[in-house]
Amino acid sequence: MPIKVPDSLPARAVLESENIFVMTEYRAMHQDIRPLNVLILNLMPTKIVTETQILRKLSNTPLQIQVELLRTSSYISQHTDSDHLESFYTTFDRIRDKKYDGMIITGAPVENLEFDQVDYWAELCEIMEWSKTHTHSTLHICWGAQAGLYYHFGIEKRSLPQKLFGVYEHTVLKPSSPLFRGFDDVFYAPNSRYTEVWKSDILKVADLELIAESHEAGVFAVKSQDSRQFFILGHPEYDPDTLAREYWRDVDKGLDIAVPAHYFPGDDPKKPPVVRWRSAGQLLYTNWLNYYVYQTTPYDLTSI
User: Fold this and answer.
1) What is the CATH number of the domain that holds 108?
2) 57-71, 115-129, 133-147, 232-246 — which is least confidently predicted?
3) Residue 181 has pLDDT above 90, yes or no
4) Is 166 within a domain?
5) Is 235 part of the annotated catalytic residue set?
6) What is the DSSP letter of 259?
7) Mind listing the pLDDT tens digit for each residue in 16-74?
8) What percentage of the chain reaches a pLDDT higher than 70?
9) Is residue 164 assigned to a domain?
10) I need a surface site. Which of 188, 209, 220, 248 has the fewest CB within 10 A?
11) Helix, strand or coil for residue 192?
12) What confidence category does residue 259 fall into, taking pLDDT thresholds of 50, 70 and 90?
């Protein structure tokens, strides 16, 4: 079954060109199926790129998914056309009375700021508090994961001596976890961040479970014991060229940026990168949707 998106959303054309089954609103209305309702809080400045990456991962599943895009109202992105935001995004005041099967909170390029220095921190806290009673399961990504761990469990983010930038090998710590069903013994995931959370801090919180890590990149996946909240410190949804574009962007700005680790063949940025994380990234999103949303969410959303 496909993902359901607005007919004119730019991501639709991209996904259809990749032979991904995307259903129009008209066709979805004529099916007698309750789709999973998934809310995506997109905090990234390049919203169209991020929404396309995440929708690609949500699309490859036998479930029908109704996606709603959410933006902050306390800070308006300067990198996305206002017509796109008005056409395809909603704000929290419009959906605060609704309930959702699942929610995704993306990363944001603000990790060098203290949480309370982020323009929309107060609004994000309100949304994260609301998610505890209005979403069945919430998936937090990268800075969104750090923000969630701090807000819900008091886990501090820690500055790194240099940017963690590249594709790293990870190990599943709990092979029995449905989130990692079908994973290889080791898997790869992109990372791009200046901060981290410490394993020792996670292990001190009885309500949290560390389920995957990397000997180079540190903590990767954490979940709450009740499986209502997931925190992923990397970017399994990244496109093949995302790190390359970030690297060349910073080079063009004259910034001191290292070549992404384990990404370009022979660390030569003139060579096209080899993708080693696509299948694991797809499995992670599919498993979250299947085992922690679809299999356990109530049919009547009002009972969440």
Assistant:
1) 3.40.50.880
2) 57-71
3) yes
4) no
5) yes
6) P
7) 676 555 555 555 454 456 789 999 999 999 899 999 999 999 987 778 899 999 999 99
8) 92
9) no
10) 248
11) strand
12) very high
The reply to whether 163 sits in an annotated binding site is yes
How far is 235 from 167, CA to CA, in rounded Å? Answer: 9
Please name the residues in contact with 252: beta carbons below 8 A apart, sequence gap of 6 or more.
none
Comparing C-alpha atoms, which of 134, 164, 163, 150 is closest to residue 68? 134
Q: Which residues span the domain enclosing 10?
A: 3-159+194-238+278-303
What residues form DSSP beta bridges with 159? 195
* Number of domains composing the chain: 1
Is 169 designated active site?
no
Q: For 81-98, what is the mean pLDDT?
A: 93
List 221's β-bridge partners, or say none.
212, 232
Which of 142, 152, 170, 213 is labelled catalytic?
142
Q: Which residue has the higher pLDDT, 157 or 9?
A: 157
Query: Among residues 42, 144, 138, which one has the least CA distance to residue 90?
Result: 42
The DSSP secondary-structure symbol of 216 reads: T
The DSSP H or E segment spanning 135 is strand 135-141
Q: Residues 63, 290: contact at Cβ < 8 Å?
A: yes
Is 125 tagged catalytic?
no
On whether residue 256 sits in a domain, the answer given is no
Residues 6+ apart with CB under 8 A from 190: 166, 167, 168, 234, 235, 236, 238, 242, 243, 263, 277
73 is in an annotated binding site: no
Q: Is residue 186 part of a domain?
A: no
> Three-state SS for 115?
helix
